[in-house]
């Protein structure tokens, strides 16, 4: 009596999780379709049911980095929502320093990743910015937070104590908040 081999059951979440684990362990350059398939004990072709190509896989990694934390409740004050999102981005950078620079290289393209951008847009609208200024404000705020988080995760600030970095990050967020408030007063 022969045994029928059973194919491993994988999902998009498993594919992305394997890609993130590889990037965390070996760096972003080690993330290939072959490596992800090997980690999941499937053929590379099995991945294409869940990601269309490596670009889609990388977009999925951006999604994971942006969505590994819950979005703050929309009924919180706008300042608190932006602070919580910024703190979560910083935590993501420190948790995944090898892959985090991907957020500086690739835009959010998946529906889940775009919900994070939309949450920032809503907070900025609630802050009083008019709709024509919200996209620019989001890009500038995101760039500042991502830049700080990526610099910290990459070791650029390694000679500073954690308390200093926490104070610097708080100062950055306060400065950004003042800029948003000034833009809303126009």
The CATH homologous superfamily of the largest domain is termed Tetracycline Repressor, domain 2
Largest sheet: none
Strand content: under 5%
- The best one-word shape is globular
Note the quaternary state here.
single chain
CATH class of the largest domain: Mainly Alpha
Unreliable runs, pLDDT <50, ≥5 residues? 1-6
Average predicted local confidence, pLDDT:
92
Total DSSP E strands? 0
CATH topology label of the largest domain:
Tetracycline Repressor, domain 2
**Span between termini:** 79 Å
Helix/sheet category: mainly alpha
Helix content range: 55-70%
Question: How many structural domains does the protein architecture include?
Answer: 2
CATH-scheme architecture of the largest domain: Orthogonal Bundle
CA radius of gyration is 19 Å
Describe this entry's structure for a reader.
The chain is mainly α and 186 residues long. It has 2 domains: 40 residues, Arc Repressor Mutant, subunit A; 120 residues, Orthogonal Bundle (Tetracycline Repressor, domain 2), CATH 1.10.357.10. Helices cover 66% and strands 0% of the residues. The protein has 9 helices and no strands. Helix 5 runs antiparallel to helix 7 and helix 7 crosses helix 8. The longest helix has 23 residues. 28% of the residues are buried. The N terminus is likely disordered.
Give a short summary of the structure.
The chain has 186 residues and is mainly α.
């Amino acid at each position: 009596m022969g045994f029928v081999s059973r194919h491993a059951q994988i999902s998009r979440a498993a594919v992305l999780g394997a890609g993130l684990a590889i990037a965390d362990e070996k760096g972003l350059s080690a993330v290939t379709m072959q490596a992800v398939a090997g980690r999941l004990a499937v053929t590379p072709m099995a991945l294409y049911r869940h990601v269309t190509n490596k670009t889609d896989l990388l977009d999925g990694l951006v999604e994971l980095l942006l969505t590994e934390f819950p979005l703050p409740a929309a009924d919180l004050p706008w300042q608190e929502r932006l602070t919580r999102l910024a703190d979560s981005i910083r935590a993501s950078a420190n948790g995944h320093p090898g892959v985090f620079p991907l957020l500086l290289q690739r835009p959010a393209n998946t529906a889940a990743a775009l919900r994070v951008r939309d949450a920032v847009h809503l907070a900025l609208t609630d802050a009083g910015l008019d709709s024509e200024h919200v996209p620019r404000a989001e890009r500038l705020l995101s760039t500042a937070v991502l830049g700080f988080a990526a610099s910290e995760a990459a070791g650029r600030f390694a000679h500073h104590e954690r308390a200093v970095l926490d104070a610097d990050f708080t100062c950055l967020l306060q400065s950004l908040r003042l800029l948003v408030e000034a833009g809303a007063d126009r």
